[in-house]
Design a protein that fits this description.
Layout: H1 2-21, H2 31-50, H3 71-74, H4 80-83, E1 100-102, E2 107-119, E3 126-139, E4 144-153, E5 158-171, E6 174-182, H5 205-208, E7 215-225, E8 232-240, E9 282-290, E10 295-305, E11 313-325, E12 328-339, E13 356-368, H6 371-376, E14 387-398, H7 408-412, E15 414-427, E16 430-444, E17 447-461
Helix pairs in contact: 1-2
Length: 462
């Protein structure tokens, strides 16, 4: 092939030169020589057409991923194990378990969802295009990585940077990360994407006690260890601003905390993530142990001051678990919060707010795909990528745990809910969900309610 290539290149470059600049009377190439040049060029072009195409190498392996898995493979349908991140190496890598599309300078992906709610005690039914979230990932170098999420909510100008970090990879046991971080407080906050969830609404404990999506600017480290050939130990630890909206952030000495019996800790978040209402910094971390594939138990904690004088600490502890066996999955999370002196205003006056909160959820999933559907419509129901999931979730939450249950405030803090769902995934990246909720104990504003609801949603990665 090299001989034909050399001949073709010489013919292409030299033959026009000889023809255009030969002196008058000098001989041009003979017909036999011209035919030989033409044949060499045609043979070379035919070989080029038949040669297999070549592609650029895939992006560098992401931090904490299994050595044989690439970003291209992440865009393929995921197994149930991958969906919950139990096959990913390192809890710091959970945020990357999403599909991406490659471009010359970065990798772009994302997800969107649309939801429908019909509650018996909360007004009219409605559709909500809740989230459109583009992802951006960049391989800056072999050791420097960039990742970000930008969230558009409710189809309006409600826009925020949900996550943006710079990673410096050292070795698998230790890597550095800085930026706006998803806090490793429980596992759900790390795996909150709508296409990952099997039910439309997030658990109550992850709405009020661990108010997902919980993100703050900071710096820290993450990594993975392997105690045995079958087990692994993941960790993340970060120093961050902490909760910054408590007491309204306005310096009013008579203001009460924004941590309430009706809204939990959610209102103490700050969308202005560059602001901190005190000089103290908080610490948050998670440790997850997987003794073997399909089992993971995680423990996490948060500690930091929430008042402007840095004298009132807020502590949150969480326990999460994932058990998978065949088509069954049992997952859940429990969280406890202690907010020192939250029952007092800044001047020491009692304000009727709680100091303790607790909540949990238990969820059982069953994956299946009937054979008769495969035979009926094989292009829609594919055994390797399609699945139905039946879901049952029970959850309880008490945002006024240390208040007298006979008081109206104590009753407002109590929640209990059952949710039963059925969803269909044509591929692992797209899901159609239908859910029925029964809430025997809950609230609507300042009133306790007994509620039922039909909820549905569509969500997909792109």
């Amino acid at each position: 092939m090299k001989r034909h290539l050399i001949g073709a290149l010489m013919a292409l470059f030299l033959f026009p030169t000889f023809s255009a600049f030969s002196a008058p009377g000098e001989e041009e190439l003979t017909p036999a020589q011209q035919e030989a040049v033409k044949k060499a060029v045609e043979e070379y072009l035919n070989q080029q057409r038949q040669a297999p195409p070549t592609f650029a190498a895939p992006p560098t392996q992401l931090p904490g991923e299994p050595p044989k898995e690439t970003l291209g493979e992440l865009s393929q349908p995921r197994t149930p194990d991958k969906k919950y991140g139990s096959t990913m190496q390192g809890s710091g890598a959970l945020i990357y378990a999403r599909p991406f599309v490659s471009s010359p300078k970065a990798i772009v992906g994302g997800y969107m969802d649309i939801e429908y709610f019909n509650r018996t005690n909360q007004g009219n039914s409605y559709f909500d295009q809740h989230r459109l979230v583009p992802f951006i990932y960049g391989d800056i170098s072999d050791r420097v990585k960039f990742a970000a999420e930008i969230e558009f909510e409710h189809g309006t100008n409600d826009i925020k940077v949900e996550f943006a970090s710079i990673d410096y990879l050292i070795q698998e046991p230790i890597n550095l990360r800085a930026g706006i971080l998803l806090l490793p407080l429980g596992k759900f906050n790390l795996l909150h994407d709508a296409p990952l969830r099997d039910l439309t609404e997030r658990p109550l404990v992850d709405q009020r006690i661990i108010p997902s999506t919980l993100h703050q600017p900071g710096i820290g480290a993450y990594g993975t260890f392997y105690p045995t050939t079958l087990s692994k130990l993941d960790y993340e630890v970060y120093f961050i601003n902490g909760f910054t909206n408590a007491f309204g952030g306005n310096g009013n000495p008579n203001a009460n905390s924004n941590i309430t019996v009706t809204n939990g800790i959610r209102s103490a978040r700050s969308d202005n993530t560059s602001f901190d209402n005190n000089n103290g910094k908080a610490v948050v971390g998670r440790l997850a142990f997987s003794p073997l594939l399909g089992i993971e138990i995680g423990g996490s904690g948060f500690f930091g001051s929430y008042d402007p004088q840095s004298k009132r600490p807020l502590a949150i502890w969480a326990l999460d678990w994932t058990f998978q066996r065949g088509p069954f999955e049992f997952i859940g999370e429990s969280a406890w919060a202690y907010i020192r002196d939250n029952n007092l205003s800044q001047t020491g006056t009692p304000n009727g707010q709680p100091r303790r909160m607790q909540g949990y959820y238990l969820q059982l999933n069953y994956h299946f795909l009937p054979e008769w559907l495969i035979r009926l419509a094989p292009t829609h129901f594919k055994p390797e990528v399609s699945t139905f999931t039946a879901v049952a979730r029970f959850e309880q939450m008490n945002l006024g745990q240390d208040l007298n249950d006979n008081t109206e405030a104590g009753k407002l803090g109590e929640w209990e809910r059952w949710t039963f769902g059925l969803n269909f995934r044509p591929t692992e990246d797209t899901v159609f969900k239908t859910d029925f909720q029964y809430t025997p104990v809950g609230r609507n504003g300042n009133q306790r309610i007994h509620d039922t609801a039909f909820v549905a949603s569509w969500a997909t990665y792109f």
